[in-house]
Each structure stands twice: as structure tokens, then as C-alpha cells.
Write a structure and sequence with these properties.
This protein has 295 residues and is mainly α.
């Protein structure tokens, strides 16, 4: 509740305090207790990706306190988690109307605007958040992602560098910087970034796969296959991992082994276009080799 009324989680304290209050004061204390509980539940459900439950908790709390910033912010995040961008933006705007320097709301509003392809407005949100707090690393990261999405790769890398300067243990930022460097043709730099992401999070199957893909470009096929194997060990039901491994084997002209990988990818995802196409090419190469009587 607040320092005046003690810890809202301690019902005994609340009960003792309420005895000393008039009805109006008791109602205010109990309302605040209920709102706090609903907000805690909303945040719990949101962090566990139960977004609809989080929204329901926030809505109930907002009936009691329609301008509660914390509830509005949590509801906005939960709405964003269900791809309801426009509704999320409304919540963030309500937060910002009450608290214009709420950097988290500015950042998340920017994310919602990016999802809605409204890049100019998103940039304004990120820039405003960084104006208030230049050391807010996640904003630099999200700004970098938006710039990369727009094809402004050099500018995106600058943002990733700033984010990593502030939060060097951000594995996702290392991973996305790796993609940006590979896009620019800096394969060695990309490999280093993917490796750094793996050092921080060894269970990141995507980072293992994309490190392998970059290694394949450099001709380091054996190490690439080992990386694919690690990704498959982490998530054996990922059709992309099997497809990537198949392509690495394919590039080594190990067509039968590649076909086996493509088939596993297609068993997991029968509509995997790349696996379908590459399997057909590998079958044609195999048939050609057999027709010529080659070993």
C-alpha cells in the first residue's frame, strides 16, 4: 500500500490497520491491496507468456484504478505479446500521458510501432527514450533491430555496438550483430559474434546453426557440421537445423547424407520449401553420379 499502512502482502497488518480507520480509509486501503494483487498476477502471467490471463488481471485492476500506470504498462506489454499492436500503443500512450519520461513505455511503444511498420514514429520513441536515458541498452538494441529491418545495416551495427558496450552479456545482441556483419560480407566478424552469443548462452540452437552457416561459407565444413549437430542436440525437432546440416553436407557433395537430413526436416515440417527443393537437387546429383558409374 505505502509506508503509512505497511506491507500490503501482510494481511494481518492490513487487518490491524483497518480497525483504526474510518470506512472511506478502509475502502482505499483494501482497493489498493486488490489492485496490487491483480498487478502482481498480471506481471506473473505476462512473464510466463500467459498474455490473455495477464490482460484479464489488468482489466480488473483498471476497473478500480483506471489511471494506474503499472497496470496500463503491463496490459500494453501483454497486448503486444498477442500481436495486438494498436491496442498496446493505446496503453503505452495512456502511460506516457501520465508519465512522459517513462522510458520503458517509450521503448515498448517503439517496438509496437515497428511491428505495425510505422518506422518513423518508432524512431521518435527510441530517440526520446535515449534522450532521457542514453545508457538504456535495450533501446539501442531495439533501434538496431529496426534499422537492420529497414536495410540500414551499418547504422544498425553502430547501435548493436553501443548496446554491447553497455550490456556485454546480451547474447541476443551478439547474435543479431552477427547477422548484420554477415549481411555486410564480414564472415569472420559474424563467426566471432555467433561464437560470443554461444559462450553466453550455450543452449542457443539458432546461434550454433548460424555460426555453422558462416563457417560453411568459409569452407570449414567439418566444424560447421559439428555446430549443426550441437543445435540438433539442443532441439532435435527443429526442421531448420536438419535442413541447414543437409545443405552443409550437400556442399561437400555428400548427397546421400544430405538427403537423409532433408528427409528428417520434411518429416518434421512437410512444407519446408528449402528442404524439398534441396532434396530434389541432391537426388538429381545422386542419379547423375550413378548413371556415370562414379563411386
Amino acid at each position: 500500500i505505502n509506508a503509512e499502512y505497511g506491507d500490503p502482502a501482510d494481511l494481518f497488518v492490513v487487518g490491524s490497520v483497518c480497525k483504526k480507520l474510518n470506512k472511506l480509509q478502509r475502502d482505499r486501503v483494501l482497493r489498493r491491496l486488490v489492485v496490487n494483487r491483480l498487478n502482481s498476477l498480471g506481471e506473473y502471467f505476462f512473464t510466463h507468456e500467459c498474455n490473455e490471463a495477464a490482460i484479464r488481471c489488468c482489466d480488473k485492476g483498471l476497473i478500480l484504478e483506471p489511471e494506474n500506470i503499472t497496470l496500463l504498462y503491463t496490459k500494453g506489454n501483454a497486448l503486444l505479446g498477442t500481436d495486438r499492436w494498436m491496442e498496446a500503443i493505446v496503453c503505452y500512450d495512456l502511460v506516457l500521458n501520465k508519465e512522459p519520461k517513462h522510458t520503458k513505455a517509450l521503448n515498448d511503444k517503439g517496438n509496437a510501432l515497428v511491428d505495425a511498420n510505422r518506422y518513423v514514429e518508432a524512431m521518435q520513441c527510441y530517440e526520446r527514450a535515449l534522450e532521457i536515458d542514453p545508457n538504456f541498452s535495450i533501446v539501442w538494441y531495439n533501434k538496431g533491430n529496426m534499422l537492420y529491418k529497414q536495410g540500414m545495416v551499418g547504422e544498425a551495427i553502430k547501435c548493436f555496438n553501443k548496446a554491447l558496450e553497455l550490456s556485454p552479456e546480451d547474447s541476443e545482441c551478439w547474435y543479431n550483430k552477427g547477422h548484420a556483419l554477415r549481411y555486410q560480407g564480414d564472415i569472420d566478424g559474424a563467426i566471432d559474434c555467433f561464437f560470443k552469443a554461444i559462450e553466453i548462452d550455450p543452449n542457443d540452437a539458432d546461434a550454433w546453426n548460424h555460426r555453422a552457416n558462416a563457417l560453411r561459407v568459409k569452407g570449414n565444413f567439418d566444424l560447421a557440421v559439428k555446430c549443426h549437430n550441437r543445435a540438433i542436440k539442443i532441439n532435435p525437432k527443429d526442421s531448420n537445423s536438419w535442413n541447414y546440416k543437409g545443405w552443409t553436407l550437400h556442399c561437400q557433395e555428400k548427397y546421400l547424407k544430405a538427403i537423409g537430413c532433408y528427409e528428417k526436416a520434411l518429416n518434421l515440417n512437410p512444407k519446408h520449401y528449402d528442404a524439398q527443393r534441396r532434396k530434389q537437387i541432391a537426388l538429381e546429383h545422386t542419379a547423375l553420379i550413378l548413371s556415370k558409374g562414379l563411386p
